[in-house]
């Protein structure tokens, strides 16, 4: 059925990702994205219909994920030893995600975005390249971290070219904020790597400021500076656009401290957690 002939109110992809899976448009909370309705190509739509039930995950905030079960191959026994899991927040069209998954098949990548065409694209890339170590999560990464990821369940977190929100009145929408880091730290294993990259100079400075000031993160660079781009990070789509505009790219590589401060431990949420560190007043 074409987009235009679909009756009003019927889901776009009945077997695919649920629009706004937590009903979060009703939560009064500052978000790092704005919902957008973008065109989905035939190939992306086809991938969403066929592959979502196998490799997709709606962030509905209902339960803490069993990550080994999520990454278990259908028809195979549950792996004996747990494999490393890296969370990628905001994968966009997923090309870099697919490249990293192919380059490191022993690491599982939980890739999250709200962008439907990108979800279809990444599913397509995973199928075409025989990648079994990628799962595509639909929804807000904040809800995923807050309600669905167990303490110390992640080996790493990647945030590549997050929306820069350049206007001063929108700066509060930037994902990398002290409260977000306090939510993230307990879900990372001790020593787990948080890797951020941006081509927006003021955001790079902001990231450096909040990460350096946060007691639960340590810069992997002894000089406290930005890191050279590590070999494992491919060029991303947004990075390419930034470079064409003459922007300079900054990478930040911080690791989680071995011992957390009390503040971060208090932020360790469960599915039933009532306090949102991004909304401590509950409004
Ligand atoms: C500027 S794009 C960068 C995409 C990709 N990493 C790249 O470099 O090409 C930022 C992406 O983050 C996603 N995003 C922003 N906030 C998010 C959130 N809270 N949860 C999930 N995805 C988010 C947006 O939908 C968008 O696709």
From TrEMBL:
Catalyzed reaction equations: guanosine(46) in tRNA + S-adenosyl-L-methionine = N(7)-methylguanosine(46) in tRNA + S-adenosyl-L-homocysteine
Region (Interaction with RNA): 169-174
GO MF entry, a single one: tRNA (guanine(46)-N7)-methyltransferase activity
Top class in the EC scheme: transferase
Gene3D superfamilies linked: Vaccinia Virus protein VP39
Cleavable signal peptide: none
Pathway(s) of this molecule: tRNA modification; N(7)-methylguanine-tRNA biosynthesis
Keywords assigned: Methyltransferase, S-adenosyl-L-methionine, Transferase, tRNA processing
Stretches for region Disordered: 1-42
Top-rank taxon: Bacteria
EC numbers on record: 2.1.1.33
GO cellular component, one term: tRNA methyltransferase complex
Record Pfam families: Methyltransf_4
Binding sites annotated in the UniProt record for substrate: 167, 199, 236-239
Annotated SUPFAM superfamilies: S-adenosyl-L-methionine-dependent methyltransferases
Binding site for S-adenosyl-L-methionine: 88, 113, 140, 163
Family annotation (PANTHER family): 3-DEOXY-D-MANNO-OCTULOSONIC-ACID TRANSFERASE/TRNA GUANINE-N 7 - -METHYLTRANSFERASE, PENTACOTRIPEPTIDE-REPEAT REGION OF PRORP DOMAIN-CONTAINING PROTEIN
Protein purpose: Catalyzes the formation of N(7)-methylguanine at position 46 (m7G46) in tRNA.
Entries under NCBIfam families matching the protein: tRNA (guanosine(46)-N7)-methyltransferase TrmB
Family membership noted in the UniProt record: Belongs to the class I-like SAM-binding methyltransferase superfamily. TrmB family.
Designated name of the protein: tRNA (guanine-N(7)-)-methyltransferase
């Amino acid at each position: 059925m074409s987009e235009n002939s679909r009756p009003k109110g019927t889901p776009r992809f009945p077997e695919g990702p649920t629009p706004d899976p937590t009903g979060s448009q009703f939560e009064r909370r500052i978000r790092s994205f704005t919902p957008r309705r973008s065109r989905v190509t035939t190939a992306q739509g086809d991938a969403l219909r066929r592959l979502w039930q196998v490799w997709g995950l709606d962030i509905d905030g209902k339960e803490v994920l069993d990550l080994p079960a999520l990454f278990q191959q259908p028809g195979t026994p549950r792996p004996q030893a747990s494999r490393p899991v890296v969370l990628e927040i905001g994968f966009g069209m997923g090309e870099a995600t697919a490249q990293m998954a192919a380059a490191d098949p022993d690491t599982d990548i939980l890739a999250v975005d709200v962008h439907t065409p990108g979800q279809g694209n990444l599913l397509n890339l995973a199928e075409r390249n025989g990648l079994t170590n990628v799962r595509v999560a639909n929804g807000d990464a904040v809800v995923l971290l807050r309600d669905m990821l167990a303490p110390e369940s992640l080996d790493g977190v990647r945030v590549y070219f997050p929306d820069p929100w350049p206007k001063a009145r929108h700066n509060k929408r930037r994902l990398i904020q002290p409260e977000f880091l306090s939510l993230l730290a307990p879900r990372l294993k001790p020593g787990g790597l948080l890797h951020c990259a941006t081509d927006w100079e003021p955001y790079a400075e902001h990231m450096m400021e909040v990460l350096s000031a946060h007691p639960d993160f340590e810069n992997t660079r002894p000089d406290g500076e930005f890191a050279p781009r590590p070999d494992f990070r491919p060029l991303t789509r947004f990075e390419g656009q930034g470079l064409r505009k003459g922007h300079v790219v900054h990478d930040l590589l911080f690791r989680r401290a071995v011992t957390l401060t009390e503040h971060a431990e208090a932020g360790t949420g469960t599915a039933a957690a009532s306090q949102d560190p991004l909304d401590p007043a509950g409004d």
